[in-house]
Amino acid sequence: MSAKILYGKDFAAQIKESARTEVDKLKNQFNVTPGLAVIIVGENPASQVYVRNKHKTCEELGIKSEVVALPETTTKEELLAKIDALNADKTIHGILVQLPLPEAVKAHSDEILNRIDPLKDVDGFHPMNVGKLVTGTPALVPCTPAGCIEMLDLAGIEIDGKRAVIIGRSNIVGKPMLHLLMARHATVTVCHSHTKNLPEITREAEILVAAMGKPKFVTADMIRPGAVVVDVGINRIAPKKLVGDVDFDAAVEVASAITPVPGGVGLLTVAMLMKNVVTAAKLQLGV
Ligand code: NAD
Questions:
Q1: pLDDT tens figures, 115-128
Q2: 218: Cβ below 6 Å to ligand 1?
């Protein structure tokens, strides 16, 4: 068997198209242009690429984009003051702080992220939005796991009643993924670095989500034949070579559907960010 390959660009295009329609509606009906501010501190080259990509996608969809590039020496107080100003700015509906923050302010990441108005928290990291997700009234949901669910829906893959296994329990991917899959009536197990007999558990999965950051860790023998494999991992193993957490070439022979790396889940994240900016604008307008 050779799995169906779930290319992110196809699904991202659909998500972006529906965001564009919503942007046009907000402009025409309410005279409001959704706006995103991305704060980047320091010169991390990977972060610069991500921020450029977000800016470009905003422009593509007619979303106002403001990149706030601050020097490496920025203090916590300066960052908090900038966030306060953006919270008060009526033309900005979404605020995102590009992570990781430089060493000097990294220890204050939570305090900095929690300063963002929950209605403008397009990353969905604020405890208020996390609480809403856990209690089943989601508003703004972390983009990567939300993108995975959207992709499964667009691909016509049933989630209800399925046995799902997630490898990874981070606040950004693993934990929100648990709540999103559970809300869609999957039976979910979350595995992590202390899990014993991991392959035994992953082999039960009809939907397997790998989000651990370990190159090609998930081998074919860890995959149930016919499973849907969602590879969130992005691992740079050489200057120009990215691989996922799944051994793709072997897994493709066992799974029924699988996302590639690169070209899979990564593309959905930015598309979902655009959708979150639109959602944030609507929440603030009360429509
Ligand atoms: P993280 O480092 O915060 O978390 C990794 C998780 O994997 C932890 O919960 C840990 O317990 C688990 N883990 C590590 N080793 C393990 C092992 N041997 N067995 C079982 N579990 C193990 O990482 P993260 O932020 O959740 O990101 C995970 C991966 O997803 C990374 O490769 C990251 O680059 C990628 N990522 C991709 C996107 C995207 O847009 N596609 C977005 C976010 C993260």
A1: 999 999 999 999 99
A2: no
